[in-house]
Amino acid sequence: MQIGWCTLNCRFNQEEGVGDTPDSYAYDGNRVRKWNVTTTNYGKSWAAGDIVSCLIDLDEGTITFCLNGQSLGTAFSNIKMGPGIAYFPAISLSFKESVAFNFGSRPLRYPVEGYMPLQNPPTADLSKANMLLGYVKNVLSTSIDTQEGKLVQKDSSSWQLHGEPTVLITLAHIFNYFAPLMCKVYLVEDVLMSFLLGILEGGGSVEEHPLIQQLLDLFWLLMEDYEVNECLKQLMMSLLRAYRFSPIIPDLGFQIHYLRLTTAILRHEKSRKYLLSNVLFDVLRSVVFFYIKTPLRVKEAGLEELIPTTWWPTRFDKEGRDEREQREESADERLRRRAYERGCQRLKKRIEVVEELQVQILRLMLNNKDKGTGEASRYIFLNKFRKFLQENASNRGNPTVLCPPEYMVCFLHRLITAIRGYWDEGKRKTLGSVNSEEAYVPPQLFYNGKVDYFDLQRLGGLLSHLKKTLKDDLASKANIIIDPSEIQAATMDDLDEDEEGGAAQRPFGAAAMGGALARPSWLSSPTLGRANRFLSTAAVSLMTPRRPLAPPEKVKVRTLAVEQRTEEDIEGSHGNDGLLLGRPLEEPDQPITEKSLLEILDGIVMMYNLSVHQQLGKMVVVSDDVHEYAVALKDTEEKIARCPTKRPDILEELQKSQKVFAEKLNHLSRRLAWINATIYSKEKMLDVYWLLRVCIRTIEHADNTGSLFAFAPEFYLNVAMNSYSALKNYFSPSNNMDELPGYEETLTQLAAILANHFADPRIVGTDIKDSLMQALASYVCYPQSLRAVERIPEEQRVAMMRNLLAPYEQRPWAQTNWILVRLWRGCGFGYRYTRLPHLLKTKPEDANLPSLQKPCPSLLLQRHMAELLSQDKDMAASFLNSVLNQLNWAFSEFIGMIQEIQQAAERPERNFVDTRQLKVCATCFDLSVSLLRVLEMTVTLVPEIFLDWTRPSAELLLRRLAQLLNQVLNRVTAERNLFDRVVNLRLPGLESVDHYPILVAVTGILVRILVDSDRQGVSRAAAVLLSDPCFQLHSIQHLLGESEPLPPGLAPTPRRSKTLLLTRLH
């Protein structure tokens, strides 16, 4: 982004922007440079939420920039001036960048003496508004003493609207002139907002300042509705801008000040409902009020004073413990750490003040008792919140429409705190109801049409498809009958993209005060319209058979679009379950006092899936930077200690580097303190953990409904997997997962979900099935989560292993094979390494990858595998045949690719091998090794599959195995052959291709069938191996380290070959 000034002569395009032409001048705070054809260093780095002032002095011919009111110095002097030269504001933006301009239509946040805005301030109106406001203040601070018959002064903070008629008549005259002025943004921000902020400056809680409530009553009484509406809209927009663009100071005073006024305004019922209905989600992005921005410039935010002593934590592994051996801290380190922690605690307490105000605002929006002036606030919020989710779910490719993910993270945490508070309040009022610790979303919300899931994918596919295929199950299990003609109508409607839907619907967003807004564009969207047309046209009959004294009564209902719902549709009434219509027999009938909280909870889960998880992963980069700089600093200090005294030049450079690293670490450690307090604190971790448990319970309850599980949205499974990943990978360095309440049980529950559903036929989506498989593969890589898999019920473990042993054809098999390999790693021949021996000297790009974890085999799951393969001969044969087929394919592809690579490398002309080809080649090699390891695992656990020839497929499997082993040995063991030459090239991307991993895998199989078997098995295996046409003795000699051929006198006869081979293998 480059911002500045240009003349009309400038011509810009995709390549050249402001500052790239002779008559344009720009400042770029991202690159910290100024631009006028050439570029030089200038100014400071800017961040989102900063205010840049662009000053041009046409008397002196200079251009200056200010950042948040602080001058950055003169950027350009002697700019071109004279006849025909006129300068205009200009900006160049990159993709996803945005900026808001103020040319003077609003008061400048940082006015500079001697400079004027492009738009002159409304001086006359400003003077008039201040004068009239002065009159209002005088009236508020004056009362009539009826006994004395005179005016007396009083404290305006105690003023009440219901007073003397004379006072009201006087105010009505004033407002006759004052009200029209309060529709102008400049006057609202400069006059009214300043006045209201002044009322709260005295301190104390917002409740201690009732004057703002009285003033809002006065506004609604003495102003026209359209005037109050415009005034409140401009006031909230001004507050949001003020909050968003205020700089961070140590006590967060600016943010607290604006949030207090926002709270005071929203405490007024009529104003709150109007703002919820028409402003907070429609005109402005109210989610900004729940965001606490992270300061980029630590010094300006006052973090140096708040956290004077810095410290950086040691690196933790994925299980939450230090990677290195525990060692005692030195006294100096302990003092630094404790001082740093005290500073972090001070910062956290100040941030918590802001968070508490934000939660108060949300609790006001979620008030469901304010029914005096129409629909309660919560139900207005609920419909707006659903539309907000729809916009963010349906515009994933349009970043200008999406809510920024950093806002979503803060909004999610505040919303969790608010609804848990309301949930537990309801629990205290209703005995037997579910408390927030046991919260979940009942499965009927997924199929009764009461909650709109837009066009989001269900586990079983599209909603219209599920309604048709599972209509009988809906009738028998949930007492929901779908009219076949309505299903057909919905199907035809899906095909008709141009048909207008919902012509008879009420206008969207009808204000609680009366009036209506125009039909929003999203209702006309073909994609979104289909889901809404289905929901609004499908006629659903619901039966309530749980009345023992009467026959089932059919109730004809019509599913409404989001904006048409009323409180009764959500909360229910006598004979109407509201959101819980269609409860299946498997679902317990537990009272939930406020069903609207279920929909908010469902929205929170959806919100986490949309962008929160992605943002949590992004912010970890600061912690990673701290670690990298700490390693660099330690390395530099060690070099300084080893530096010879004869090289002062080297010592000087090292000391400069040390200073740079130390300064960067001081800066980053303070930033990390802020991020840990706002994003990765213990409280935020508990929020994500609570969300994980909500998803687990929801999935378990939905699973109990049998075929109706297909109606559950995919994002519940995604959030269950991703929230666990976030707890493990993003929060663990600063908080220990083991301290979470019920953590072991939760791990086991999640393990059961992964084990039960990775091959669930009710789940049809390819992406979600792949995600489940990858999550299970990652789960078995870590000891703690692997033990959780071993704790699930035995029948579930056996079923999981049975699914893993299904034939590899017709399904993605690489991840399945990977899981089996991880269960075996640590037990195989030469298979106890974490990283390949030849790669130990190189540093891995990411040591935290699941594939780089220490081996942790599962003997229990290996036993289940052995029992299954031993008992089910047909399954064993089909499984091993598929493994052998895939091994044949993977190794053949690998050999073909290295031939192409070798030919390319030997060409005399300069050439480059495609990196994608190298990656695929390495992948085929890794697949070959892992398939060999699965064969080793199988032949070790169940050798009779190959060696017991009473089994019908044993001899054929053994011959196929011998053939493949000989092929691999012949290709890999010969010196200076194709494989050897490619390995010696050491091409980047082929680091994992080496002799060791594939040869030890082959050796493990040979040892098991030729050494560790009984006499009859050894005899059969040796005979098959030697009789294979591909068998070459020199391959075995190379495997045993014998480079020279055997002496002629020892040349074995065919009979002695078996004995010699066995001896050498020993």
User: Number of helical runs?
Assistant: 35
Question: Using only CA atoms, what is the Rg?
Answer: 36 Å
Instruction: Let me know the number of strands.
Output: 13
Secondary structure: helix percent: 40-55%
End-to-end Cα distance: 70 Å
**How are the strands ordered across the major sheet?**
4-3-2-1-8
The global form is globular
Helix and strand content put the structural class at alpha+beta
- What's the mean pLDDT score? 82
Low-confidence stretches: 315-325, 493-559, 1050-1066
Biggest β-sheet description:
5 strands, antiparallel
Strand-residue proportion: 5-15%
What does the model show?
- Keywords: Metal-binding, Zinc, Zinc-finger.
- It comes from Aldrovandia affinis.
- Helix content is 53%, strand content 6%.
- It has 1066 residues and is of the alpha+beta class.
- Among the domains are: 91 residues, SPRY domain (Jelly Rolls); 179 residues, no CATH class.
- Strand 3 and strand 4 form a beta hairpin.
